[in-house]
Amino acid sequence: MKRSIPFRPTLLALVLATNFPVAHAAVPKDMLVIGKAADPQTLDPAVTIDNNDWTVTYPSYQRLVQYKTDGDKGSTDVEGDLASSWKRLTIKKSGRSP
User: Which Gene3D superfamilies does the record match to this protein (predicted)?
Assistant: First the structure.
């Protein structure tokens, strides 16, 4: 039985094509590189509404406060990121704040 595509040359071509190193651009250690399937609609964190935009804007900006973390365990306690102090607003039952 005769093969329509020569087996050995095809196999050799596949082996050689998969073993060549791929060229990568050198990236400085202080540069954030994000690979995305699509361009973001906006880079304004105030109007970011979808996950595609959020994955770019979230690590790009610091926030006033952030949630405390203990290693990889998160919590609902808040700590300052850019803010060094803040006051809590308490609304009384009368609807007025102090």
Answer: Periplasmic binding protein-like II
Question: How far apart are the C-alpha atoms of 61 and 52, rounded to whole Å?
Answer: 16
Q: Measured between alpha carbons, how far is 90 from 45 in angstroms, rounded to an integer?
A: 27
Q: Which H/E stretch holds residue 7?
A: helix 7-19
Is-contact 40 60, C-beta < 8 A? no
> 58 phi and psi, to 5 degrees?
-60, -50
